[in-house]
Amino acid sequence: MTLSDSDVAIIGMTCRFPGADSVDRFWDVLGEGRETLTRYTDEELLAAGVPAARLADPRYVKAAQTVPGTDLFDSELFRFTQDEAEILDPQHRIFLECALEALERAGYDPERTDAHIGVYAGAGMNTYLLHNLGERYRAASSVDHYRLMLANDKDFLATRVSYKLNLTGPSVSVNTACSTSLVAVHTACLALLGGECDMALVGAVHLNPPGQGYQYQEGMIFSPDGHCRAFDAEARGTVIGSGAGAVVLKRLKEALADGDWIHAVIKGSAVNNDGSAKTGYTAPSISGQAAVIADAQDVAAVDPETIGYIEAHGTGTPLGDPIEVAALTRAFRDGTDRTGYCALGSVKTNIGHLDTAAGMAGLIKTALMLEHRTLVPSLHFTEPNPDIDFAAGPFFVNTEKTEWKSGTGPLRAGVSSFGIGGTNAHVILQEGPARAQAPHESRPELLVLSARSADALEQAAAALARHLRAHPGLDPAAVAQTLGLGRRAHPHRLALVAGSTRSAAMALALGDEERLRRGAAGREPSAPVLVLTGTGADPADAAELYASVPAYRDAADACAAALGRPGEAEALLAEDGAVAACSHEYALATALTAWGVAPAGLAATGAGLATAAALAEALPLADALALDRGAAPYRVDPPRLPVVSPRTGRWMTEDEGRDPAVWTGPAGPTASLDALLDGTGRHAVRLTPPDGEPGGLTHLLTLAADQWALGADLDFAAVHTGRDIHRVPLPTHRFERRRHWVEPGDHGARVEAAPAGDRLIARFDPADPQHNVELIRDYLTEAIGRILGGRHLAALDTNLFDLGLDSLVLIEVVAKLGQELGFEVPAASFVEFPTIRSFVDNLAELMGLAPGTAPGGDGTAPAPRVSRRARRAADRHTGQA
Asked: Global pTM?
């Protein structure tokens, strides 16, 4: 297969479409030829706020293509407060989740890649602001008005994703009505090829108000019965649906070099506009559509005769379908006279017209067909529209699930999307290059999972077990690499060492506690203290480690060189004796440290003292190894790591560490190491495997698994150093969603000012400044707690920005507090004093409520005594600094 420098790979895909909350379920819908239309009862529609008079209208279609749970959102994952989440457009919420899923499906954690990732995305009309937040918007203060605008305007869809996921490439909101998705894809491809970004996250979202049908009107785009019959004689329109989709794009040659999973290849794309040469602003144009299709084929440098499928815009309207087929035929006829060879279909017959996300649905559908080499049926086609002459053209409507055969070249397809207003887009796709057979090395692998709660972790483990059982041919190394490199680390953790996907699936499904390592990382993870005993390894285990772990191999080579035996590390490790044991233990500890397990101390006995001396840099490696041959050091440097004295069983003092006799003398009676470490935030890590347990690579990975479960920040790039990286699609983050929804007419959770007579200042006691300070503190604690959704009410010393609050929210809180106090509180005070306690203490000083001061006797606050710090904060806020 010939590759071009302009080829772009689709390396990750995700979706929330009607009837399918994942790409795998979407493929099931397509392959089974299912329509995902939801029919509503009158009771359901009335409950959703549809007027009874509308239900009595025979033209009202009680059906929709919808996605469930648009009121639910994992706000804590993306660090939104309760109030922020409630006012955030649900389209932005869903797209944020899709964005993270798409990157995880591609195998990339934005926090652990140097790649510049761009975002190109669009959203539909914001009906939530229109219907649910309208009253609040009209009654909003200037700050609240600004916050509502930031939370609901289309302009902030892409940049919000970039901000929340820390993506540093271009961030561009794209909106061209129904063609938004493919125009975003086209724009992203140009940015990739122009070097503006290394990867691009591309997608769109459109949500209708939940639980509602629609009014049918003759001649409009809406179907009278909810069915979309693309290209059929009975076609009368479509149904506008809800959905979201996203893909991750990368230059093909780099995707191949990086071991990415390639779903399909974008060979070329084009965008244009109809201009005014048509019957009206909303009408389609044969010439405009034909031109964009031909341009895309030219850019892709493909012959129309090599294209075996077209995913049409296919809205199922009596006028639009014939125009689209005529435009396709005109474009194809420049390159072929063949008839009836190219399959035609429309995903709208399955899931409806997703407006801004429509092209993304067509793109993902077509990429899946290429990947599975299978054509799926276009639904509701019985007799062709009489204005379409299929017999004379290249196309036929595909109505069966069939194998897609390539003939003499790679499978290719075109995807069309045409926007109201005339912006047309067309993309040429090709099947991905054949995947190299995974080497399936016979070696153990470290698989890791994490989540923000124990329940979510169990769900993640079950999902991975199901996936591994369903895909037994997956390369275990690729699974381990994807989980380690492509997932964000959360507090609740699970790790497993397994030699095959079948073994891993069994352990996960059965909850095999002997093999699974579980734990929860605290804010300060427990720190490891390496226990060194100078115990050697079985020669076979040492040989396995030397062959498979570069950090172990480098350390063993260093030991051999220090002994004057360069190039003899393998022979050294196979020997009996203390020197070989010390070399093995030194290499094992060095490898673990290279993987991110940073020791907080060392505890050693016997020959392990030599290892400790080398690791703590108390002695050069050659001098440390000489201890095992009876040589006493002349000089010892203070150890750079805390070391437990073998004589006292307690941490060495600096003077002890300098004493050569400590590193060579016999050990005296010592207290229990576990007792020494108890309550210190440290734990013992015994490098020697217990009797009966495997050594070698399995043991090293198990040590790493234990530390991961306890919260260690493992460097998975280092764990997989020296190996080709391969990524595979795996189950993604388990979202922990809560309801965030403002009903129409509900002004939501805001901090309201009390009437003048009930203001906070009226409750002040002139004789008790401390009482007044506590009133302010209680007011802020309650007000901020409401914004946070009732959480963190006692977080007096927690940085409020760490809880997800932003400066706009706090500026509004400060403004309301000022009204309560009749005192102008510096708006930027929370920037310098970001905890409730520090903020109130500073405010008390400003108001003269600090110890030894009191408010004025008339119940009003005295002139403030402004501290130097407060003045700096206020100046910074007003731009005078």
From this structure: 0.87
